[in-house]
Specification:
The protein is of the alpha/beta class. About 30% of the residues lie in helices and about 20% in strands. The chain has a domain at about 95-170. The structure holds adenosine-5'-triphosphate and magnesium ion.
Length: about 270
């Protein structure tokens, strides 16, 4: 029998397991019959038209929405279980346009990511300081760590928010449109960073983006979401845009007012 090396769990639970998920918002079905399993170390991209439920799916995973049906398990726990505290990082759709009237430096923001119920009232100790320093270094913001977020570019702000997630030592990082509002160089370095986090730090990343080209070049697995999952597979098997139109016709359209789609106007 094979010896299991120390530190390796013989049967590791999937990071995320979603079964038969449906979500309605304001009486309208937004997500339907979603089944999704994500294993540790995967780098997954979610694409889909505007309003197709991508952010809704992330919010459901974070436990922010009431489920109409189905189950979500993160390491086998329901979302928002105390057992998950600090293990999930979240970079929201609006991360690059954080309010600029709040004066907070990069280091302060990242340090907030290390706050938890246990250390809330104590001074920042050496290990927390070190985690903050490392996270800032990983995203390449050392030079501006004492600068107010309001004075940074969109790409730098995006990286600061990612550093906050890293400092929290989250293992599962959800990003909603992290590429919006940043220039090409910043986008490329951000994608490289995310790829490294998966490969070198064994993080698991679920990223929503409209930037199909960038996604194709970076993620290992792609999901096309439009109310339900229309495609889920290896990136190199992801259909061309022309075939996507067919994919969207596979399922009958549910409800009213859902027969046309907004354009992919964002960032392309
Ligand atoms: N708070 C809310 N209450 C009710 N309906 C909402 C709410 N937020 C979003 N919706 C609706 O849910 C649907 C899916 O929205 P969602 O934000 O998940 O889409 P998305 O795929 O992230 O779109 P985008 O690409 O524009 O970010 C849309 O029809 C939207 O109008
Ligand atoms: Mg969205």
């Amino acid at each position: 029998m094979r010896q299991v090396p120390v530190g390796e769990t013989p049967q590791e639970l999937p990071i995320l397991e979603i079964e038969n998920l449906s979500v309605s918002r304001s009486g309208k079905v937004i997500l339907k019959d979603i089944d999704l399993t994500i294993e540790k170390g995967e780098f997954i991209g979610i694409v889909g038209p505007n309003g197709s439920g991508k952010s809704t799916l992330l919010l459901a995973i974070l436990g922010e929405l009431r489920l109409q049906s189905g189950d979500i398990g993160i390491y086998g726990h329901p979302p928002q279980s105390r057992k998950l505290y600090g293990r999930i990082g979240w970079v929201s759709q609006a991360a690059s346009n954080l309010p600029t009237h709040v004066r907070v430096t990069v280091r302060e923001l990242v340090q907030l990511g290390t706050l938890n119920a246990r250390n809330m009232f104590s001074f920042v100790d050496e290990s927390r300081r070190e985690r903050v320093r490392k996270a800032i270094e990983m995203v390449g913001l050392e030079d501006v760590e004492n600068v107010d977020l309001g004075r940074l570019s969109g790409g730098q702000r995006q990286r600061a928010v990612i550093a906050r997630a890293l400092a929290s030592e989250a293992e599962f990082i959800l990003l909603d449109e992290p590429l919006v509002g940043i220039d090409r160089d910043a986008r490329n370095s951000l994608l490289k960073l995310l790829d490294q986090l998966c490969h070198e730090q064994d993080k698991t990343i679920l990223m929503v983006s409209h930037d199909l080209t960038a996604m194709r070049q970076t993620v290992h697995r792609m999901i096309f979401l439009e109310e339900t999952i229309r495609f889920d597979g290896k990136t190199h098997n992801f259909p061309e845009l022309t075939e996507l139109a067919d994919l969207r016709g596979i399922e009958p359209v549910h409800g009213e007012g859902h027969t046309h789609h907004h354009s992919h106007s964002k960032e392309e």
